[in-house]
Amino acid sequence: MGYTTKNEIMDFRFADAEIFEIKGIRDKITFELGYVTILGQNSCNRDIREMGTNALTLDLMGVEETTLVKEGFKVFDADGNPKSSCEDEVIPQERYKEIYKELENSRIYDLTVENGNYIFYIDTEERTYTYTIKAKDDRETWERFMNKESM
Description:
Blueprint: E1 3-6, E2 12-13, E3 18-25, E4 28-34, E5 36-38, E6 51-53, E7 56-61, E8 65-70, E9 73-76, E10 82-86, E11 89-91, H1 96-103, E12 107-114, E13 117-123, E14 128-134, E15 137-142
Antiparallel strand pairs: 1-15, 2-5, 3-4, 4-7, 5-6, 7-15, 8-11, 8-14, 9-10, 12-13, 13-14
């Protein structure tokens, strides 16, 4: 028996969730995630306290537009003088599959939703990405609840 919610993404906390896999097919993007916090107000959470799950599938459906940005950075010397910099890089869609592979085993720093835009801030070992997905609906599916302490 599993659990499913629709358009309840704000009833989860994705900070520090691990990305196992990202797949994009037609107008749907699927994230296979680990270590997601399920908030007390979630409709499936009968304990009414923060719980967790070690495996959650997040489907974004009715995807209309996406933007994937590899964030830039600046390097300074010990005196605070600029040494070098790297500008933001907008990733073309034909490279998404390659970047999806790079993002495996990385962590979500934060996930916000604004006006139908799902904005993922993703930390890798070397760089940070911002992935904005304009979608109509979200669906969250998982198999079991876990105590947060055991995650």
